[in-house]
Amino acid sequence: MNVIEQEGCLPILNWAGEIEETALRQARNVAKHPCAAHRVALAPDAHCGFGVPIGCILALHDAVIPNAVGVDIGCSMSACKTNIDAATLDRDKLREIMGKAEGRRTGIRAVIPVGYAHQSKKQQHPIFDETERWESTRICKQEFNSAQYQLGTMGGGNHFIELQADEEGKLWYMIHSGSRNLGNKVGTEYNKLAAELCRRFRQDEVVKHQLSFLPIGTEEYELYVREMQLCLDFAKANHEKMQELLERVLREFIPDIEFVERIYTRHNYAALEHHDGQDLWIHRKGAVRVREGDLAIIPGSQGTNSYIVRGLGNPASFCSASHGAGRKLSRTAAQKELSLEAEQERMKDIVHDMSSQKRLDEAPSAYKDIEDVLHREADLVQPVVRLRPLAVLKG
Measuring CA to CA, which residue among 192, 190, 85 is closest to residue 137? Predict the structure, then answer.
């Protein structure tokens, strides 16, 4: 970790090493924010985001910044260990489990929609029984009906489902998904409201840098916090529904399977926490909380290892770490610069669906080296389980 100092800014603690100039400029803007406290931290996977770098940890006095949470509020990782020896599943069996990409969908593809697709029927979950919570919001209550069709769907972009093997040879599954369109609608709307408030109070600089904030005491602040928390709970419910559906498929193919250990990790959220003797809003955009002893999931890219880690509780990063490998190429650059044949060769031992140049935006080489990422944050987390990909379904 190195410290970036600049006059008029809070110190920036940088675990990322060399960082693209656009992300560094964003971090400097964050470090000048009128509500920012103590320091800004950049995780090893940091890269350019909207207003705030992805992989940024920020503490605020009495305010929240919607863009420091992001639009996929509560985007999460879940992982589960099974009792099955992964070596008993050959390539054909893995293909069957993941499901056909063309024609009639089967396996996991048949029960978990990807991309923009929703479920064909309303999904049941206790979160939809909490009607008072939904009614106390502006955006979520408008999306209540749609959300019931979105539950149990993966989404697109970097969201995925993987089957993996640990170092003992046991089969795991891993899911990456978030609050779907619910979080997107909330994040987008409250960033607009924050910009209106900041213009009213002549905070032109923060609006210019896409860092508009909602101060405590305003109705917008209270509403955003309420809606953000509902999005976080919806994202967790989405994982629970996908786990239910995925495990049903796995039982059909592997009748003796048992699910023996579950882990859940969220990123893209803000939480009121006590640090440096103060209660502060800790924003983790593309970062996870890793207090001492906490287990967390840090995935690689498709084609590379993922890890279960144990937190070391480092106060310098507000007890936070990376949420994944982090992009090194934009989606457009990856599609233009990478070779489909070379990336397919990298993934020759993995069941995957990277079949066209368009799919290179999520190729392994579009991401940073996960081993280097973990090396850089050795004072933040300790790896405890290494997971090798066997089969992957991308959004």
Answer: 190
Residue 206 located in a structural domain: yes
Any idea which residues carry the catalytic annotation? 323
Asked if the structure places residue 61 within a domain, the reply is yes
Is residue 340 a part of any domain in this protein? Answer: no
Contacts of 293 (CB under 8 A, 6+ apart): 310, 311, 313
Tokens 């709970």 sit on residue: 233
Residue type, 63: A
Q: Does 348 reside within a domain?
A: no
pTM of the model: 0.95
Q: At 213, which CATH number?
A: 3.90.1860.10
Range of the domain at 48: 2-328+367-394
DSSP state of 123: P
List, run by run, the mean pLDDT of 10-residue segments along the chain (395 residues). Answer: 87 93 95 97 95 97 97 97 97 91 77 94 97 97 97 94 98 97 97 96 93 97 98 98 97 96 97 96 98 97 94 98 92 92 92 88 92 97 98 90
Q: How far apart are CA 227 and CA 190, in angstroms?
A: 10
